[in-house]
């Protein structure tokens, strides 16, 4: 008897109840054989009612739960893991409901973990200073981080699914990516990409195993353009300094050796050589001073001594300093400065250095009998200062390089006049430290005009 009860418990009473209508029909046929017609029709009615009741019981206990299970399963398939199937009895439907509930909970946890990992990965990509490109085996872009978007002026959404050569038009980069995919090896190389701007990148390419035959590849692009430019500038600077220092030192040493060899016995020759040595020593001292000044101005810790000053006073004092040199060349220095110019916020000593360099250049490159004009005015809320001469002028191909260190239009003539090639570089750095701009206009044989603009209000950042 206990064994029979266990079987009935496992099967459930609903399947057994489905045989009740057949049992009633069987009893009805027996009654039809044994009883009269009235009892038969009463029995038919009773059987019909029992069948309806049993059908309703089966529907409510089987079909309805199945509909609920299907609805919740569809909800889980749509990534809605907040709904659960109500608890059912211990039968097949109940087991199915509990399985779906368990699956929904696990999927919810897995999805939350994936979203968390995706968020961390996105934060890492957004916070990187290097560019990141992920490409599939077909050469299609999977992901670009914001650094790549900014560098190449593209967007991740518009680039996704496109071929890499259509997104970043550089065949060398495309070749590196495909080479890493084909060989399965990491590659490190420095390349130059010309579009949209010329930049130099150190590229690290690594293949990724995705568990199938396709694979993907990740490229990390480190922008080393500024570093390379600084290395070139440093190399050029060292070479130029060495050359500029060697020239006066060679001259000093040569004439000193000549004097030691006996030339000092001739007073006229000795005096001539000593004057040359003195001139070269002055030039060497001036070169060293300007190198130190330029280094100090370029230092990030350099701080301007801001104060309000009159540009008119600075211009007149500077013109007085160079008046003797101008008179030696029979040059006229004219000053055109209105009396009502507003005070300027800046470092007066640095601005005096700017004017001294510009006026000194104008004197050097203007023929005897010429004119140097210094004027100042307020234009569009800024102070505009011009230093104009009617000298030899500058050719167009030289204008763009005038403010480079050690750049000279005429090297031989510049050295003869004691120029170091650093004056205009110092001018540019001082003006830019004041948040201003410097520019030049020139025509060969008609003279040049060097101009600089300064804001009339004190900039927020005083440090260079």
Q: What is the 3D shape?
A: elongated
Count of separate structural domains:
4
Question: In total, how many beta strands?
Answer: 12
What percent of residues adopt helix (DSSP H or I)?
55-70%
Which stretches of 5+ consecutive residues score pLDDT under 50? Answer: 1-16
H/E element sequence: HHHHHEEHHHHEEEHHEHHEEHEEHHHEE
Number of helices: 17
| Major sheet | 5 strands, antiparallel
Architecture overview:
The protein is of the alpha+beta class. It folds into four domains: 2-104, no CATH class; 129-223, PAS domain (Beta-Lactamase); 233-298, Signal transduction histidine kinase, dimerisation/phosphotransfer (DHp) domain (Helix Hairpins); 307-455, Histidine kinase-like ATPase, C-terminal domain (Heat Shock Protein 90). 56% of the residues lie in helices and 17% in strands. It contains 17 helices and twelve strands. The protein has helices at 2-11, 13-17, 20-34, 37-77, 92-127, 146-152, 156-159, 164-167, 171-183, 225-260, 267-298, 311-321, 323-328, 348-364, 396-399, 411-416, 423-433; strands spanning 131-136, 141-144, 187-193, 199-208, 216-223, 307-309, 332-336, 344-346, 371-379, 382-389, 437-443, 447-455. A five-stranded antiparallel beta sheet has the order 2-1-5-4-3, sandwiched between helices. Strands 7-9-10-12-11 form a five-stranded mixed beta sheet. It has a two-stranded antiparallel sheet with strand order 6-8. Strand 3 (187-193) and strand 4 form a beta hairpin. It is elongated, with a radius of gyration of 46 Å.
């Amino acid at each position: 008897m206990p064994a029979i009860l266990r079987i009935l418990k496992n099967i459930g009473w609903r399947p057994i109840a489905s045989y009740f209508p057949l049992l009633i029909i069987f009893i009805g046929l027996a009654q039809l054989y044994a009883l009269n017609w009235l009892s038969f029709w009463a029995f038919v009615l009773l059987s019909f009612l029992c069948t309806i009741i049993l059908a309703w019981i089966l529907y409510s206990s089987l079909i309805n739960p199945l509909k609920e299970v299907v609805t919740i399963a569809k909800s889980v398939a749509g990534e809605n893991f907040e709904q659960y199937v109500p608890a059912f009895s211990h039968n097949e439907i109940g087991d199915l409901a509990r399985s779906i509930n368990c699956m929904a909970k696990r999927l919810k946890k897995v999805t939350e973990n994936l979203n968390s990992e995706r968020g961390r990965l996105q934060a890492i990509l957004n916070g990187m200073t290097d560019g990141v490109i992920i490409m599939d085996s077909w050469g299609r872009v999977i992901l670009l981080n914001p650094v790549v978007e900014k560098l190449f002026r593209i967007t991740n959404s518009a680039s996704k699914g496109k071929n890499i050569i259509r997104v970043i038009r550089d065949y060398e980069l495309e070749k590196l990516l495909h080479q890493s995919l084909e060989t399965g090896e990491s590659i490190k190389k420095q390349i130059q990409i010309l579009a949209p701007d010329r930049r130099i990148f150190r590229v690290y390419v690594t293949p990724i195993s995705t568990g199938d035959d396709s694979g993907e590849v990740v490229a990390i692009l480190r922008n080393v353009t500024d570093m390379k430019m600084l290395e070139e500038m440093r190399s050029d600077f060292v070479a130029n300094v060495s050359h500029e220092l060697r020239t006066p030192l060679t001259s000093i040493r040569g004439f000193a050796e000549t004097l030691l060899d006996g030339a000092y016995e001739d007073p006229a020759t000795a005096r001539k050589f000593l004057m040359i040595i003195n001139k070269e020593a002055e030039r060497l001292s001036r070169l060293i001073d300007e190198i130190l000044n330029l280094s100090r101005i370029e230092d990030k810790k350099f701080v301007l001594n801001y104060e309000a000053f009159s540009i008119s006073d600075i211009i007149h004092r500077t013109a007085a300093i160079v008046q003797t040199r101008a008179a030696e060349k029979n040059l006229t220095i004219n000053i055109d400065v209105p009396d009502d110019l507003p005070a300027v916020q800046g470092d007066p000593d640095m601005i005096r250095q700017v004017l001294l360099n510009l006026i000194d250049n104008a004197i050097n490159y203007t023929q005897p009998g010429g004119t140097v004009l210094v004027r100042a005015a307020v234009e569009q809320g800024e102070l505009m200062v011009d230093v104009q001469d009617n000298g030899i002028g500058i050719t167009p191909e030289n204008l763009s390089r005038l403010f480079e260190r050690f750049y000279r239009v005429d090297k031989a003539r510049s050295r003869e006049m004691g120029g170091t090639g650093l004056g205009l570089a110092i001018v540019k750095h001082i003006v830019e430290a004041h948040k201003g701009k410097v520019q030049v206009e020139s025509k060969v044989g008609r003279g040049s005009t060097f101009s600089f603009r300064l804001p009339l209000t004190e900039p927020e950042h005083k440090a260079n």
